[in-house]
Amino acid sequence: MVKAVKLADIAEKVGVSVVTVSKALSGQKGVSEEMRARIKALADEMGYTPIHAVQTGRTRSYTIGVITFETYFARFASFYWKMYQELATRAVKKNCFSMLEVISNFDEENLVWPKLITENQKIDGIIVIGKPKTDYLKMLYQSRKIPMVFMDFYDDEDVVDSVISASFNGMYRMTDYLVKNGHTRIAYVGTLMYTESITDRYFGYCKALMEHGIEVRQDWIIKDREYSDGVIGPDYRLQLPKEMPTAFVCNNDVTAYALIKQLERKNYRVPEDISVVGYDDYLYAEYGDSKITTYSVDMGEMSKIALSCIIKRIENISVNPSVHIVNGRIIERATVKKIN
Predict the structure, then answer these.
(1) Long-range contacts, 28-33 (Cβ 8 Å, 24+)
(2) Which of 12, 113, 148, 285 has the fewest beta carbons closer than 10 A?
(3) pLDDT by residue (tens digit) across 73-95?
């Protein structure tokens, strides 16, 4: 029996990633015409045929549209770009194609439909990474004929398959970790109600403090972005409290990095004077190697579950929609000091 040719086989022959092969064969941007022609020629030569799971009887792979938003990309390569790469890599292993569209701030504000939906008739399902504004989300619900799954957010107003990291439990564990290292004066950095994950992480922080009999101080809840644009980065100026804590828990690593830089400018040493922890275990390459103690999000498992959910929806498998919570783990690095 002849072994089926996979995208990974073509990628190995050409010397490129499976994501590049997927883009070339599905007509996506990001691949030169010369490389696209080379990949297609080799695919034909090797006898490649995109086949979905044998039991479905399909003679083509599924094409999955992935939608995210300019807000989350800001000025730097995004955490969500990394999440998409993980998703795309796992998709090709299932003989599926993925196509990414980043919705601009203008299109989101003016309720412009994604081109993946209006101009592409080949999309079998949609995965939305990152929560859009309320009106845009309501608009997306109108495309019910296309199966949809959410990643890194959920919606209390409607029941849709969603895959999220364990924000509540993860931040509970990070705060508890600081308490076990002797800290009782702990601040939280994150703009509450900007996203479910930021707010859920805040509640995890509160639970850990309450269990240890520690007061939750309102002056130690610090915004890390404005509601208007949601932009975060190393240049964002946090409003530090007049009375400083001994430790900060930050809702993500980018915010933790910005905080550390701001503390250093004020001649505080991390961790000698103040401890800092983050969340996500992801920093942009521009920031260099991370030394931040953090909570690592399992993007691989999140992507695996999201793909499983969307394929079930495409194939009309009857399963009740649910929120899938994926646990991560604490990564100890160099930004926490044990105190008495």
Answers:
(1) 28/97, 28/99, 28/100
(2) 285
(3) 765 557 898 899 999 999 998 88
Cα dihedral 144, 148, 152, 157, rounded to 10, equals 30
User: Helical H runs in 181-271?
Assistant: 196-211, 253-265
The residue type of 136 is Y
Q: Which three-class secondary structure state does DSSP give residue 10?
A: helix
Which residues contact residue 311 at a Cβ distance below 8 angstroms, ignoring those fewer than 6 apart?
62, 94, 96, 125
Structure tokens at 190: 């994150």
pLDDT at 187 over 60: yes
Give the distance between the most distant pair of CA atoms in the chain.
73
For 223-239, the pLDDT digits (tens) are 998 877 666 766 678 99
- Looking at per-residue confidence, does 309 or 9 come out higher? 309
Strand order in the sheet with 323-326: 97-103, 63-69, 125-129, 148-151, 162-165, 323-326
pLDDT of residue 55: 42
Tell me if residue 298 falls in helix, strand or coil: coil
Report how far residue 31's alpha carbon sits from residue 111's, in angstroms, rounded to the nearest whole number: 29
Whether the bond into 271 is cis, omega within 30 of 0:
yes
Q: Side chain identity at 239, as an amino acid letter?
A: Q
CB atoms within 10 A of CB 1: 3
Q: Where are the alpha helices (DSSP H) in 53-188?
A: 70-73, 79-93, 105-109, 115-118, 134-141, 167-180
For 38, the enclosing helix (H) or strand (E) is: helix 33-46
Q: Is 230 left (phi over 0), alpha (psi -120 to 50) or beta?
A: left
Give the chain's mean pLDDT: 88
Query: What's the mean pLDDT in 242-266?
Result: 96
Question: What's the rounded Cα separation, in Å, for the pair 142 and 146?
Answer: 9
